[in-house]
């Protein structure tokens, strides 16, 4: 839980206090959100069950 709060605060600080183009901020936000979702899935043990899913034949 602390990690989520720290990541959220850091992302908020970057978005508010570091001047950069809106497109770059959007990409940065997407990358951080995807990384946090993957990290959460891994921490909850759901990544292992997702690896066994076969798509196609």
TrEMBL record:
Transmembrane recorded as keyword: yes
Official protein name in the record: Thivi_2564 family membrane protein
TM spans (from-to): 26-47
Record carries keyword Transmembrane: yes
Keywords, in A-Z order: Membrane, Transmembrane, Transmembrane helix
InterPro entries linked: THIVI_2564-like
């Amino acid at each position: 839980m602390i990690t989520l709060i720290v990541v959220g605060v850091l992302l908020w600080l970057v978005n508010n206090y570091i001047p950069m183009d809106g497109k770059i901020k959007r990409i940065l936000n997407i990358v951080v959100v995807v990384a946090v979702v993957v990290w959460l899935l891994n921490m909850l043990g759901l990544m292992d069950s997702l690896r066994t899913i076969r798509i196609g034949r």
